[in-house]
Amino acid sequence: MINLFKIAIRNLMRYKRRTLLTASLITIGVVFVLVFVSVSGSFKNMMIGQITDSVIGHIQLHRKGYVASIENLPLTMNMKANSVKRLEKIISDEPQIEAFSPRIKFGGMFSNFAETTNIRLNGVYPEKEFATVPLLPSRITKGEKSLNLGEIIIPELLANGMNAKIGDTVVIVATNQNGSVNGKQFKVSGILESVSGPGGRDGYIHLEDAVELLRMEEIEISEIAVRLKNFDKLDIVTSKLEELISKELNKNDKPMFEVHPWKKLSPFYHISRMIDLLTFFIKIMLIAIVLISIMNVMIMAVYERIREIGTLSAIGTLPSRILSMFVIEGFCLGFIGGVIGDIIGIVIVFIINMAKIKFDFGMQKGLTLVASIHQGDLLAISATVIIVSVIASLQPALKASRMNPIEALRHV
Amino acid sequence: MTLISAVNLEKTYQAGEVIVKALDGVSFEIEPSSFVSFVGPSGSGKTTLLNLIGCLDKPTSGELRIADTEVLSLNRRESALFRGSNIGFIFQDFNLIPVLTVYENIEYPLLMVLTTSVEERKKRVLELLEIVGMKDQRDKYPDQISGGQKQRAAVARALVTNPKLVLADEPTANLDKHTAYMVIELMKKMRDDFKTTFIFSTHDPKVVGEAEIIYTLDDGTIINKAIKAGKKHD
Ligand SMILES: Nc1ncnc2c1ncn2[C@@H]1O[C@H](COP(=O)(O)OP(=O)(O)OP(=O)(O)O)[C@@H](O)[C@H]1O
Ligand SMILES: [Mg+2]
């Protein structure tokens, strides 16, 4: 019994060394891409997870213009209680949203009765905040992983600089939006590990304490952080929220609120884009490697077998069948190289995970790299290799199928 | 009933400035189950003529009918189909497919050119292996057998589709005298068994002697037609 695949495999076996070299080249390319894609992808997702789950949340809502002047933490740009109510209604009605947390953000003075320094603070409802940024408790390295009225969680660097310890009494002094200054005593209940990016070095107090400290007549909110049930739906939910809140207009018929996904808030997004770009170029390189090596081998194969092609053609083999003989040969070569590459790639990623490689990201130390190969990536890379192999063998195969049998038979 | 009728076949090649007249007005008729040889000096046009009869090439002018088909009007694909079902080829260099075993080489036309059922295919291949005496070599690859064995396998491959016509351009040129003789005898036996017409070209006078009708070509024209005594064709 013979068939086209058998013929292709036997022809590949005929030139073992050449087949081995080409297949290895493809294998190396696939391994490289797989390992890179999985490591960089996992790194990226981990960093995004760190950023969104410990500080920013997935999406934030503000009064229009707040983000543009976020450095000043302007209290004048807060959202009034009835606006917040309307926003909270919109958010609560959205089934894709898991949790949200209103925050009052402001700057103040931190004093331990000996020294004074600046501090940026978030007034939050602890349960809501912890639900929205679930990694926050894990950042509290010392003290209770909770926050009660009258307590403050302070950033690590500040604690070190001011020599503040758990249980110390400190004073926070803040200026409210009318310009009047007020102070309030807090007990240090926790010390917070810093993270890179905006808000990574802020302290936390209870929202009601913030209201009192800032002498607000009614609760005003600087931002609402939102956590989604499914992070992959980020873009969909963002645009849905954008549409919903665009109907909320102010007196001048201008939109009153703005929506920002984490991408617009953290500079890490640009790093993640760079990683994507790098991945893209590495994939292009893989395609080039496969294309050139397969084409090279198939051109040689056709050239070496001109007389054979002449024979097949003379005894009545249709051009389309001769074409498929060579295309299948290229396909098999790409398939073998790709599958071996997949297997080795998976093994290497497994070894990387076994080795528990640690890395630092900004202030965060000792994160463990957990690489994972996504089935989608695996399929896409394998499919690309195979499709490119077929495309690369198409031109030589076409040449073979169009050969004039007499000339081919006369070829020496 | 004529199998092949050729009228005034001409073939010119242009190699740069030079125009070569490889065939210059060749006409003949060949009946079914003939055993025909074209002989002539090198360059006389034997290969050119066999290529035309084999529907591998088109003449510059003339007419050619094979098995009631105007083969000159066939396109590339139709020619291939016609060759596949009507003509078998035997080559000077045997031209077996190196990656296929003897069995698979013989099977190839039934599988890749025609579509024959599994049982039919097996039956036919085994039958031919038996006739050409290659049954015990069936699982060897071409590079594991001798020239004579290769040509016997090639004869079996040419006949496996039961073609009306088998063409062989110098089928014995690469074989020693004894083997050459055996291959020709085998071809003759096949003609007797299957009523297939064989047309071959040769230089070898011994081999020529085996033919029943001998056309002599010189400079692109038929200069002589000899019919061996005992043959009723004219
Ligand atoms: N492709 C070609 N281009 C140009 N001239 C050709 C071509 N093929 C054959 N010829 C010429 O046509 C003539 C007949 O060639 P052909 O091959 O048919 O001879 P032949 O009888 O088979 O010779 P031999 O016994 O050496 O095989 C020769 O003069 C040859 O040079
Ligand atoms: Mg010749």
Brief descriptors of the model:
heterodimer; A: 412 residues; alpha+beta; Cathepsin D, subunit A, domain 1; B: 234 residues; Rossmann fold; 4-stranded antiparallel β-sheet; 34% helix; binds magnesium ion
Overview of the structural elements:
- The complex is a heterodimer of chains A (412) and B (234).
- Chain A has 412 residues and is of the alpha+beta class.
- Chain A is 53% helix and 20% strand.
- Chain A has a 6-stranded mixed barrel. Chain A has a two-stranded antiparallel ribbon with strand order 11-12.
- The longest helix of chain A has 41 residues, at 16-56.
- The two termini of chain A are 30 Å apart.
- Chain B has a single domain (4-227), classed as P-loop containing nucleotide triphosphate hydrolases (Rossmann fold, 3-Layer(aba) Sandwich), CATH 3.40.50.
- Chain B has a 6-stranded mixed β-sheet with strand order 6-7-8-3-9-10, with helices on both faces. A 4-stranded antiparallel β-sheet of chain B has the order 2-1-4-5, covered by helices on one side.
- The chains are: A alpha+beta (412), B alpha/beta (234).
- The interface between A and B is medium-sized, with 23 and 31 residues.
- The structure holds adenosine-5'-triphosphate and magnesium ion (MG).
- Residues 46-47, 169 of chain B line the site of magnesium ion.
Count of distinct strands of chain B: 10
Find the CATH superfamily of chain B. Answer: P-loop containing nucleotide triphosphate hydrolases
Segments of chain B where pLDDT lies below 50 for 5+ residues?
A: none
Number of helices of chain A: 13
Shape of chain A: elongated
Task: Please write the CATH class name of chain B.
Answer: Alpha Beta
Mean pLDDT of chain A: 90
Distance between the termini of chain B: 14 Å
Distance between the termini of chain A: 30 Å
